[in-house]
């Protein structure tokens, strides 16, 4: 019997045992119970595992060279040569990888292994996703409501509720709201200055957390923005190339991250029983980018794909000349997205942060 289903068949036992515990522990059963029974994922390409595959959008990567270092060298729709950060986190928890919600395999018993609603190029702001014809966060939330009903139909209402309140909700988004929307969009810049735009995005992020809470989520983790100015595409667009990161974009990301962290601390008190985690991806990525050799990389300023400067999604193709032989030498696989090797380093740090804040 699968572990996921086994959890549902022992709800009485678990209800008693987890009463005093914030997260499930190995002592909850003679079987090794994972600390968190499932991951439920929202956001953008940093965690998308294929939801864009059948959309009419240029922002997809279910083609080589994406996935060339994945299981069976298979492109799945992940924006990386291999796994994304949440894949590593699921492995560390010892739970199955949640499937992309729009993947036709995501039905019946597979729903209890968690689920992934993330869509490359989306943001906290629905307008960001709409520019690229991908799945806005509000639609990801609608899908979550659908998922709750489907899950209850498979495992029963009580078991579904139990799973959904013990699961960890991971949200990784926001970069596109800045580098693929605000800073390319003069109308938006006229409408909001930097402070106002930050307020706007933070408000959307906190509303999203409140909505999840209303729907039964209790353990919610939000990733910080990465050092946006160090993305190869941004170095290229702002003319700094290999020489350095774009300072103003890093400052924007840092200021956003401080606000996000403060906002989550303030929100906790208004959401009884919640555990809200702020996961700092900025510091680790910044350190890796500044000292690539210390972490086993040869290059942190260019992506592996093509020339490494602009290639991403449908303009990162296997016929592109220049694509690197060994992506594990690179921090970035394309001009926006980290490699499998980088995500692995990041996951080590984020996993610890998540457990200490969600289970502490
Ligand atoms: C896309 O369509 C194919 C073929 O119908 C299907 O197998 C797949 O599950 C669909 N969705 C995703 C996200 O790949
Ligand atoms: C679906 O769930 C079954 C039973 O738990 C498992 O064996 C299978 O690998 C899952 N499929 C996918 C695509 O994750
Ligand atoms: C943005 O606009 C607000 C309201 O008009 C103003 O108070 C603030 O100083 C402006 N901030 C910046 C950075 O221009």
How is the topology of this model organized?
Blueprint: H1 3-9, H2 11-17, E1 39-43, H3 85-93, E2 99-100, E3 115-116, H4 126-132, H5 137-155, H6 157-166, E4 168-172, H7 175-179, H8 186-191, H9 194-214, E5 219-223, H10 232-237, H11 247-270, E6 275-279, H12 281-290, E7 299-303, E8 330-332, H13 340-358
Parallel strand pairs: 1-3, 1-4, 2-3, 4-5, 5-6, 7-8
Helix pairs in contact: 3-13, 5-6, 9-11, 12-13
This protein binds 2-acetamido-2-deoxy-beta-D-glucopyranose (NAG) (3 copies).
One 2-acetamido-2-deoxy-beta-D-glucopyranose is lined by residues 50-51, 53-54, 100, 102-104.
Structure overview:
- The protein is an alpha/beta fold.
- The chain has one domain (2-358): SGNH hydrolase (Rossmann fold).
- It is 42% helix and 9% strand.
- It has 13 helices and 8 strands.
- The protein has helices at residues 3-9, 11-17, 85-93, 126-132, 137-155, 157-166, 175-179, 186-191, 194-214, 232-237, 247-270, 281-290, 340-358; strands at residues 39-43, 99-100, 115-116, 168-172, 219-223, 275-279, 299-303, 330-332.
- The strands form 2 sheets. A 6-stranded parallel beta sheet has the order 2-3-1-4-5-6, with helices on both faces. The chain has a two-stranded parallel sheet with strand order 7-8.
- α3 crosses α13 (340-358), α9 (194-214) runs parallel beside α11 (247-270) and α12 (281-290) packs antiparallel against α13.
- It is globular and about 55 Å long.
- It starts with a helix and ends with a helix.
- Mean pLDDT is 91; it is low at 1-20 and 26-30.
- One 2-acetamido-2-deoxy-beta-D-glucopyranose binds next to loops.
């Amino acid at each position: 019997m699968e572990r996921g289903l086994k959890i549902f068949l022992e709800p009485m036992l678990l209800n008693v045992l987890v009463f005093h515990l914030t997260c499930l522990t190995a002592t909850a059963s003679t079987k090794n119970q994972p600390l968190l029974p499932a991951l439920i994922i929202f956001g953008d390409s940093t965690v998308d595992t294929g939801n864009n595959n059948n959309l009419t959008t240029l922002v997809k990567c279910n083609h080589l060279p994406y996935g060339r270092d994945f299981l069976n060298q298979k492109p799945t729709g992940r924006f990386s040569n291999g796994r994304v950060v949440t894949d590593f986190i699921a492995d560390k928890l010892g739970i199955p990888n949640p499937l992309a919600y729009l993947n036709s395999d995501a039905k019946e018993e597979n729903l209890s292994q968690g689920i992934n609603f993330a869509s490359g190029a989306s943001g906290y702001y629905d307008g960001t996703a709409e520019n690229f014809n991908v799945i806005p966060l509000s639609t990801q939330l609608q899908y979550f409501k659908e998922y709750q009903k489907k899950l209850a139909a498979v495992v029963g209402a009580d078991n579904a509720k139990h799973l959904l309140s013990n699961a960890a909700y991971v949200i990784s988004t926001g970069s596109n709201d800045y580098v693929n929307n605000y800073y390319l969009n003069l109308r938006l810049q006229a409408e909001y200055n930097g402070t106002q735009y930050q307020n706007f995005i933070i408000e959307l992020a906190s509303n999203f957390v409140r909505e999840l809470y209303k729907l039964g989520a209790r353990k919610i983790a939000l990733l910080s923005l990465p050092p946006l100015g160090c993305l190869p595409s941004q170095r290229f667009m702002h003319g700094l190339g290999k020489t350095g990161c774009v300072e103003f974009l890093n400052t924007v990301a840092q200021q956003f991250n401080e606000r996000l962290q403060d906002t989550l601390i303030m929100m906790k008190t208004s959401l009884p029983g919640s555990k809200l985690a702020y996961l700092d991806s900025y510091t680790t990525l910044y350190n890796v980018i500044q000292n690539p050799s210390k972490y086993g990389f040869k290059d942190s300023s260019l992506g592996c794909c093509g020339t490494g400067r602009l290639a991403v999604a449908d303009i990162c193709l296997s016929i592109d000349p220049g694509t690197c032989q060994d992506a594990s030498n690179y921090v970035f696989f394309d001009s926006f997205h980290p490699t499998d090797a980088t995500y692995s380093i990041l996951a080590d740090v984020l996993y610890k942060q998540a457990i200490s804040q969600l289970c502490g």
